[in-house]
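Pair request: fold both.
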Amino acid sequence: MSTDVQPSAWSGMVPVDDTALAVTDTGGPGTPVVYLNGQFATQGHWRRVTAELGHGYRHITYDERARGRKSHRSADYSFEAAVRDVDAVLAARGVERALVVGWSYGAFVAAHWASRNPRRALGAVLVDGAQPHDWLDDAMEQRIRKQFRQWGWFLPLLRPTGLAPRMNADELARCNIELGRVARERELAPVLDAISVPTRYVVASGASLGSRGDEQERIRASLTAVAARNPAIEISAKVASNHGTILKKDFRAVADAVREVTAATAGN
């Protein structure tokens, strides 16, 4: 924190660019932790992790653009906008340094933010995401576009629950295709190699929504080389749950990774 005044709990909207994000901040004197969601997720997905960690941390969660029930739509759903939003939320809450925890899409955002902000990042926990792998090709791109067109009929039914983004099928497909480009070895490996703060991976098992066969496990295998190259990065746990259930079934492993990073940064 940039002030000695203990922050109070707060919930509200944070303006950024052409939109506004729904943010919750538990306040308190603990280590600030900002949680970054998956594309089909809300800040509610972190409730088990934050409850497990308890009052020793200051938990800051938010719903990304067009996610959840309250965050507004935007003209920009790019990956770079998602990284900028981390800074906007932290600035609005008066937080200079924070530990970033990201799941799925949020893990990529967390990795980029930690890599770009070595003096502001206390550390990072990357939950089943940010694995460098060239999984996007022309066939996969077409598959993604087709998949979201097929899902288009029922996504509006989920939006009142906050579980589906308020984005059309084309916007969702573009976000996922862009993520495939961000994940490419030549793009992501230098980002991970540049991370200088303690970073821990928590890795799921099995498939994720839309994956086939052992695709997801082949992607995860890239982390062995990542950890071998960068001593700041370690694999904290490989858990039994799959990509979609990891925050529900293995929240303790995620919380343990946060504690590991906190211990590694003690005194810094």
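--- second member of the pair ---
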Amino acid sequence: MSNQWIVGVDLGGTTTKLAFITMDGKIVYKWEISTDNSNEGQFITSNIEKAINEKLNDLGQTKAKLLGIGMGAPGPVDYETGTILNAVNLGWKDNFPLKESLKASTSLKAAVENDANCAALGEMWKGAGNGAKDLVCVTLGTGVGGGVIANGNIIQGINGAAGEIGHITVIPFDGAPCNCGKTGCLETVASATGIVRLAMGELKKAESTGELRALLAKNGKVTAKDVFDSARNGDELAQQVLNEVSFHLGFVTANIANTLNPEKIVLGGGVSKAGDILLDSVKEYFAKFAFSAVRKSTQLALATLGNDAGVLGAAWLIKNKLNQ
């Protein structure tokens, strides 16, 4: 078993990341394929099987090398049955039996979990969590995901929807609409799209001549990265947007910490690549809103695994099953 591999899969609406991973968490080989969500997503798992077989052949290996396959998928997942309750971008109908489909396609032991939960498990196992058994991961990307780990186990909740941190309401009245159907969710202000929306709102209101406005004039748009870069360079409007984003993240993470008192709260996803300018600003608000004992014991950190977090967490699902 020690020289066998686990297949880790991070399923996305556009691309699917795959990796062969050892039992001690070393990535042997990783690659990506396009996600084919046509015809109600009927080719997704068979394409994954085809990609695995092709890569094994390229590497001179057989299926006997593989211990199992773990997958992180977007949307709430019933962990026990491996059913994905709804997946907006994948073409599947509600309550799709993903684990059974994966087992049937690959003939491997399979485990399925929400993708943000897998990212949290990856960071716990091999990343910023550094083995912490009580950990919260907030994934800041196109949307905002979350994963809550208590005593080494993902908290799934009664319907597999625990850890939906992005849909905590932060603006209770007159907030921006969220893709979930609510308004004022954290996702509307702290995701990449939310940050751009805030920045464009300020640019429309203010008569400023700073770096961010110059980027808008030059490119016809601004990105979340532009906001952070401009804030780093002293742009007043960009700093205002950064402050608003940090306030909401600090407020939410402090109240999560007040409830759970995890060892670490890890900020991941593409937005977290802003680095210390974001982390330091969030820490200020976290300290303001966190209960004193929590403030002293819960540490905020940036994720370290980048795009590898999901496949590593998915592999951990199988490792954990084998160790039970």
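Observation on the second member. The mean pLDDT is 93.
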